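Researcher: Go.
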Amino acid sequence: MIACSRQIPYRTCLVLCLSLPLVTSCMMGPDFQRPETKVSSQWLGQASNAPEAAPVQDMAQWWTAFNDPQLTSLVERAMQANLDLRMAESRIRQARAAMGIAGADLGPTVDTSASYRRSRTPGSGNSGEGVTSDLYKMGFDAGWEIDLFGGLRRGVEAAGADLDTAVESRRDLLVSLSAEVASDYLNLRSLQQRLTIARQNLSAQEHSVELTRKRFSVGFVGKLDVVQAEALAATTAGQIPLLEAQVRQTIYSLSLLLGGEPSTLLAELTPDVALPVPLATVPLGIPSDLVRQRPDIRVAEAKIHAATARIGVAKADLFPKFTISGALGLQNNTFNSVFNQASSAWSLGPSLSWPLFDMGRSRANLELKKAFQEEELLAYEQTVLGALREVESALIASTKEEEHRQTLVQAVAANHTAVDLATSLYTAGQNDFLAVLDAQRSLYAAEDALAQSSRTVSTNLVALFKALGGGWPAEEGEANAASGL
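Model: Structure:
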């Protein structure tokens, strides 16, 4: 340690200490390089997009493509009140504070202290009297670690990457939240549609029951026709309570997503509304765009950055640490004299510490950080591949489900005709009641399947928007950072 004394004048010592930060420093460890991703030049299912619809203009608000004000309201309110989202915002503030803590290590620290002590020392011999004395002390202590090898700066870099991770995680939650609200809403409207279909079919089947009972009373048909008609109506009636329960449960789920109690949205969502139909197609872009659009990929990238920076922190621990420390204080036995020049004391000088032997702990820690970085690189690759699979799966599901829905539209129309014909022939006595039952059963099944397929077409589109990373604007993260989120 270099200490200031008569041999080293004060000014020379001060200049020596203050010049240490100007010494050319280096940064240990590798610099972060954004990972390169090799993907296909186009999507396998891209040609299947419907050409007659206009593309969505704003992927950040893709739900507006359904042209449903209530859906838009629910999504926007969820983004304000959802508890998971608010917790994510809290984690951003935590990460920003942690970055501030890491940055504080780059600068000096100054502590101040003041004390008073009164003491008595015993006298010598049997008749010696003790001595009572006072001691007044006050002063400042300062320290500054000179980051010659970049360990502290790498720590700040890692903390910044952790902040990026928190910001991108919130964006990822925005994507998932908007998709979940939209999916639950579409499912709710589909369930209400299925409930309406069930009630309409039940009404038609109960009419058939009355018709067969009248025909049975005059001897035109046997008891079997009546029993079969009653059985079909009872079966359909049994579906209604199950659908009513699912409707209520879906409303409860939406209430939770909006940060409310289960009953919060009952009055708003109980009235039936038609299932919204999307009016636009998805702007797919090219697969390489996915790397910048999806927040979960950006999260994985930020984790690589943090892991890379921490390699530098671990590597800097292998090298010496330089610190400038100083103290300035006043000390005297009387309070009136404590501020005299003779009571002052000071010290200033640099120090060096270097762990020469630690049983390999520092080198093992360096290898540990390298292994963490390797894991994050593999996790990034897995995230990208998973994202590509999600988009392709959503594309093929959307294409094939639309084909399925079109066949169900035809099936419903054909079954309506079959029910009318079977009922007319039965009423005219030209057919047995079994044909009417089969036709009514088939019609109900086809209408219910069509309602479910229409919902699936819409939810597949939601899944595609989510897979492409829609649901947050590019400038949203920067705006949050500026506002102190």
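Model: The chain has eleven helices and six strands.
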